[in-house]
Amino acid sequence: MKIKVSDMTCQHCVKRVEDAVKKISGVKKVKVDLKTKEVDITGEPDKNILFSAIKEAGYQAEDL
Question: 20 and 54 in contact (C-beta within 8 Å)?
Fold first, then answer.
């Protein structure tokens, strides 16, 4: 699953998003690319929980 987090601006943002996503049940692996602002998630997390966790971390997630 790939999503877009367009308001990431630095490595601190990447770390916050990565940490938020890793805590979600069903997530096996997370790769965050600051340049493309994409988050590649391996596993089968609930998308609503995923988007909520990213929002709680201070960012806005959207489908690609």
Answer: yes
Query: What confidence tier does 25 reach under pLDDT thresholds 50, 70, 90?
Result: very high
Mean pLDDT of the chain: 97
Q: Is the pTM of this model over 0.85?
A: yes
- Nearest CA to 7 out of 40, 55, 50, 46 is that of 55
* CATH class of domain segment(s) 2-63: alpha beta
* Element at 58 (helix H, strand E): none
Q: d(Cα 26, Cα 33) in Å, to the nearest integer?
A: 20
Provide the phi-psi class of 43: left if phi over 0, else alpha when psi is between -120 and 50, else beta: left
| Domain ranges within the chain, ordered by starting residue | 2-63
